[in-house]
């Protein structure tokens, strides 16, 4: 039975906040029963949400907004909130503001879960939202908006300092208590107190040197991610790889750092990640998996790196990590090391032994130094989705250098610059597939170029590739 138009509008406005799995269907169905008195069939729901959502969602939201402004209040059916209150929620929830959790927001504003869910759904509120609500942003002068943004940044800075101080205080107290428990052992007591104080108070080795202008054109850092060789339209993916190689050859830099953030192939086994998208015989006969695909992908990267070195007369330093598609099994517990990607990197290291430097890591997170910058690289799949970048950088940072987080996986382009680090999500070289559409992800292909500037931080730009 066809779904009523009002229910279609509700489902599309709710999507892609949830996915089209059966459990999420029941969540939406129960909401429709509460709002409309009845739900819809599971098959009709699946048929609707597996269409090209990127167009449907935008149209549904523009034609049927889930909120309206009445005087100085937002009406979010069946609730009503003052504009000042919603502005405060935007500033408190955004990572650019107070960065409160959902539980903290509900506690501060005394919301029930139903009211909080209505606000998130109506305003499409997420951690990367603005620090003011849409009505305020549209009806404020540029000076007023700048003032609000400055206030939010100051609040965020104060909150981060408070959290860091609290964390160090707890560590100091814990170490001190452990030392006090060692009764009668003066040496143990002294050693533990010294360790606690040393961790609590950063130690700096001051060296005063003349700051020189940098010749940043000598070195460039090129970053690629989510190549997915073997999926549909692999011929276009290979063309994009050679666009990256041509850029490196034409670069004025003498040294090229190339970093790959994983997902080298679509699926290494017939039942691997998204194996339904393997291009069986359609593009460069890439309908293959297992040993043949491992060798073919290795050959592609070997030819690319050798071309940059020989054609461009460049020094190449290649660094790689693996992604979830690089597993030899769809079940992550059976291949936590992601052996497919490791085998390819090891083959590159052996084949290019006297041609280029090849480094790779079998851990999900890794760090390395390039042109004076400390890089933290991670494919960013799994539980990393829930990690806040400021907490990640505290875990892996280098106090003596500027820190940059590089991650892929989500096929999206995003960058944010903080006081002492930059967080960059690198989009995919692969084109849009059914997964990308279901998650409403990117529709462009890019790679990233980074240069160290004279201030020992980074300048970066995204380079668009052909579709």
What would you note in describing this structure?
This protein has 467 residues and is α/β, with parallel strands linked by helices. The protein contains 15 helices and 14 strands. The strands form 3 sheets. The protein has a 6-stranded mixed beta sheet with strand order 7-6-5-4-13-14, with helices on one face. A 5-stranded mixed beta sheet has the order 8-9-10-12-11, covered by helices on one side. It is globular, with a radius of gyration of 26 Å. The two termini are 38 Å apart. Mean pLDDT is 76; it is low at 17-22, 52-64, 200-215 and 281-285.
Summed up, what is this model?
The protein has 467 residues and is of the alpha/beta class. It is built from 15 helices and 14 strands.
Main sheet properties: 6 strands, mixed
Shape label: globular
Distance between the termini: 38 Å
Strand fraction equals: 15-25%
Helix-strand category: alpha/beta
Q: Please count the beta strands (DSSP E, at least 2 residues each).
A: 14
Let me know the average pLDDT: 76
Read across the widest sheet, the strand sequence of neighbours is 7-6-5-4-13-14
N-to-C order of helices and strands: HHHHEEEHHHHHHEHEHEHEEEHEEEHEE
| Secondary structure tally, helices | 15
The helix fraction, in percent, is 40-55%
Estimated radius of gyration: 26 Å
Question: Low-confidence spans: pLDDT under 50, at least 5 residues?
Answer: 17-22, 52-64, 200-215, 281-285
């Amino acid at each position: 039975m066809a779904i009523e138009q009002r229910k279609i509008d509700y489902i599309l406005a709710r999507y892609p906040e949830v996915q089209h799995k059966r459990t999420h269907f029941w969540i939406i169905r129960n909401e429709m029963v509460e709002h409309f008195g009845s739900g819809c069939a599971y098959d009709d729901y699946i048929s609707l949400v597996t269409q090209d959502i990127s167009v449907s969602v935008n149209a549904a939201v523009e034609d049927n907004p889930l909120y309206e402004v009445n005087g100085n209040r937002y009406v979010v059916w069946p609730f009503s909130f003052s504009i000042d209150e919603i502005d405060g929620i935007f500033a408190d929830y955004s990572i650019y503001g107070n960065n409160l959790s959902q539980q903290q927001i509900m506690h501060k504003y005394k919301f029930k879960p139903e009211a909080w869910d209505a606000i998130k759904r109506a305003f499409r509120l997420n951690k990367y939202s603005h620090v003011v609500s849409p009505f305020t942003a549209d009806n404020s002068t540029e000076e007023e908006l700048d003032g609000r943004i400055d206030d939010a940044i100051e609040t965020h800075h104060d909150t981060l300092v408070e959290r860091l101080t609290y964390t160090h205080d707890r560590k100091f107290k814990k170490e001190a208590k452990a030392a006090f428990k060692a009764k009668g052992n003066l040496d143990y007591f002294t050693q533990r107190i010294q360790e606690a104080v040393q961790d609590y108070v950063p130690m700096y080795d001051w060296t005063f040197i003349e700051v020189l202008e940098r010749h940043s054109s000598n070195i460039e850092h090129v970053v690629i991610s989510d190549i997915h060789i073997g999926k549909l339209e692999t011929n276009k993916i290979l063309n994009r790889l050679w666009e990256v190689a041509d850029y490196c050859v034409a670069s004025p830099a003498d040294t090229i750092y190339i970093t790959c953030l994983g997902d080298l192939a679509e699926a290494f086994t017939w039942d691997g990640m998204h194996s339904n998208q393997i291009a069986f015989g359609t593009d460069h006969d890439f309908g293959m998996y297992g040993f043949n695909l491992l060798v073919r992908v290795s050959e592609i990267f070997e030819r690319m790196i050798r071309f940059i070195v020989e054609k461009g007369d460049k020094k190449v330093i290649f660094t790689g990590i693996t992604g979830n598609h690089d597993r030899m099994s769809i079940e992550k517990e059976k291949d936590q090391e992601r052996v497919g990607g490791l085998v390819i990197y090891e083959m590159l290291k052996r084949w290019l032994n006297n041609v280029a430097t090849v480094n790779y890591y079998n851990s999900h997170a890794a760090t390395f130094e390039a042109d004076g910058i400390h890089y933290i690289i991670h494919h960013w799949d799994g539980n990393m989705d829930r990690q806040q970048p400021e907490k990640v950088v505290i875990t892996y940072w280098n106090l003596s250098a500027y820190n940059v987080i590089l991650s892929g996986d989500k096929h999206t382009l995003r960058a944010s610059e903080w006081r002492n680090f930059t967080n960059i999500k690198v989009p995919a070289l692969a084109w849009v597939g059914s997964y990308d559409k279901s998650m409403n992800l990117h529709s462009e292909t890019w790679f990233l170029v980074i240069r160290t500037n004279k201030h020992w931080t980074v300048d970066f730009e995204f380079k668009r590739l052909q579709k």
